[in-house]
Structures are given as C-alpha cells and as structure tokens.
# Entry
Amino acid sequence: MSTPHIAAEPGAIATSLLMPGDPLRAKFIAEHFLCDVTPFNKIRNILGFTGTYKGRPVSVMGSGMGMPSLGIYAHELYTQYNVERIIRVGSCGAYTRALSLFDVLVANSAWTESTFARFYSGHDCKIAYPHHDLNMQLFSTARAMGVEDRLQLARVHSSDVFYRHDAEDYRDIYRDYGCVAVEMEAFALFHIAQTLQKQAACLLTVSDCLETGAAVTSKQREQAFTSMIELALETLVES
Ligand SMILES: O=P(O)(O)O[C@H]1O[C@H](CO)[C@@H](O)[C@H]1O
Ligand SMILES: O=c1cc[nH]c(=O)[nH]1
# Structure
C-alpha cells in the first residue's frame, strides 16, 4: 500500500502519532525516545518511524513546513492509515515579551489569514480548535509529571508566510486576534482533524522572540525540545 507521499504497509503506522515540522526532529525523537523502531517513510525525506514508548506503539513523522505540506500528510495519515490522533510538536516565534526561549505552549486555538479551510472542507473559517479531550489529557499528563505550571495555554497564529513584507504586523495580529506566537501548521492540523472527526493537539516550544531578536540555533530546534516531546509521548500513551 502506498499513497502519493507515504510508502507504508497497512498496520505499519500506529494510531497515535507525533508530528514535528522538521523530519530530522522526527528522527531525533525516534532515536532518543522510542524502542523497537522501524522506519516507514522516506519519500521526499519526510521521515516516518514507528516504535514503542513504554510498551505502547507510537509513530512519529515530519510534516514539512506550512499548511499545504502538513495538509497532505495529515490527510493521508487520517484517511488511509487509520491514524486517530496527532500531536504536533513544533517551534514558534513569540509575539510578546511575556514569553521566553524554550517556553512550552499548548495551543487552545489557531487563527490564520489563510484560505486553507475554504478549499479543504468548503467552510471558510479562520479559527480552528484542538480536540478538547486530547488537550485536557495534555494537562492532566503534565500535572501527573509535575510540569503543569510550565505549560502556557495560547492562541497561536498559523501563518502562510515566514518572511512577511511588513515585519512588524505581528503587533497588529497580537492586538487584534490575541495570538501570542506564530507557527505555520496548527490551524490546518486542527481543521483537518475536526473535518474528519479525528483528534489533534499542538505543543510548541518558543524558538524565537520577535520583540528581542533572541533565537535558538537550528540544531537546538532539531534536538533541544525534549520537555515538549516527553509530554506529548506521555500523553499519547495515556490516550
Ligand atoms: O519547527 P517546526 O515544527 O517546523 O515549526 C515552525 O518552524 C518552521 C519555520 O521555521 C515552520 O514549520 C513553523 O511552524
Ligand atoms: O513560524 C515560525 C516558527 C518559529 N519562529 C518564527 O518566527 N516563525
């Protein structure tokens, strides 16, 4: 069995899946957190792996950058491979000085200026929400791990454009829509999951602060987001 973008046999992908944007973050997660790992995809170098975490099957796969890319993989995983829940584990840029590098956010909604929903489902909405129970599970898992006070609930901006012509318009987006950070995929993931009656949530680690110019390195974006990854894995095996 193969879809245009994923070459996995039926049953090779677990029903619970972690989805970073960066395929090398997916490889890092598989190599450092999972046992009995089997690769299931390398088409276009969008690496996918299935293994076990605390004895439970879990898969991890990159989404690539942006909603068009994530939209392809999430749709094929949910509709062709029986994936039931996806937690995105991404990086984000902070729009406010109240956030610092390595802070971990749980998205409670994603706002976008994109037309993704209009053409994916025919419903032209601009705000999408994670699955309620999965988000609640993230918090109860964090509580059990003793890290709940390090999580911040946040509305995020899912942007189609990384290099915007008006590099300061994030201040308007923060003021007008209440988005405290920017990334590029959560809206599409939430909208696809809701449309297909599947589950999705999104954890983000702050990698840039737009107000101060502080930023982590590319290597840190690949390998240093371990608190978020551990919380996502613990949540998936509890769900
Ligand atoms: O680090 P990831 O998960 O890729 O997330 C963020 O980083 C990329 C931009 O550098 C976009 O994909 C954005 O959403
Ligand atoms: O989309 C993103 C992700 C991280 N940092 C940003 O500034 N934007």
